Amino acid sequence: MDASLPIQAIAADVFVAPQLEADAMPIAARMGFKSVVCNRPDNEGGSDQPSSERMSQSAAAAGLQFAYLPVSGAFQTPEQVAAMAKLLQELPRPLLMYCRSGARSANLYRQAISG
């Protein structure tokens, strides 16, 4: 993968990133990603944070599938872990997950695959 975005590989076809902006979606598509998952709740970082709706629209315009699965940084419920496991089965890869720093996305992924 090209290093145009601040991404980290956590599996062969799954990557995490810190908060992205809407203009990152076409870059992600050019890098070869097929889908994006937002794990950061809307407005967690204040009004400057792009909404999941804006990110979804930008992802769709770039030809990417987009899923919004907001989770707390401190704890992910069994239902959220199960929802992520389902997304991992359904979404095309390579997959890019993001949150504030990338850490909660990585943790959620690890929980979802160990389920």
Write up this protein.
Helix 3 (78-90) packs across helix 4. A hairpin with a 2-residue loop joins strand 1 and strand 2. The chain has a single domain, classed as Protein-Tyrosine Phosphatase, Chain A. It has a five-stranded mixed sheet with strand order 1-2-5-3-4, with helices on both faces. The chain is 37% helix and 17% strand. The chain has 115 residues and is an alpha/beta fold.
Specify the overall morphology: globular
* Separate helix tally: 4
Low-confidence stretches: none
Mean pLDDT score, rounded? 95
**CATH C-level name:** Alpha Beta
Approximately what portion of the residues adopt beta-strand conformation?
A: 15-25%
Summarize the amount of helix as a percent range.
25-40%
Order of helices and strands: EEHEHEHEH
Number of strand elements: 5
Rg from C-alpha positions? Answer: 13 Å
Strands of the biggest beta sheet: in what spatial order? 1-2-5-3-4
End-to-end separation in angstroms reads 28 Å
Please identify, by name, the CATH architecture.
Answer: Alpha-Beta Complex
Q: What number of domains?
A: 1
CATH topology: Protein-Tyrosine Phosphatase, Chain A
Structural class: alpha/beta
CATH homologous superfamily placement: Protein tyrosine phosphatase superfamily
- Tell me about the biggest sheet? 5 strands, mixed
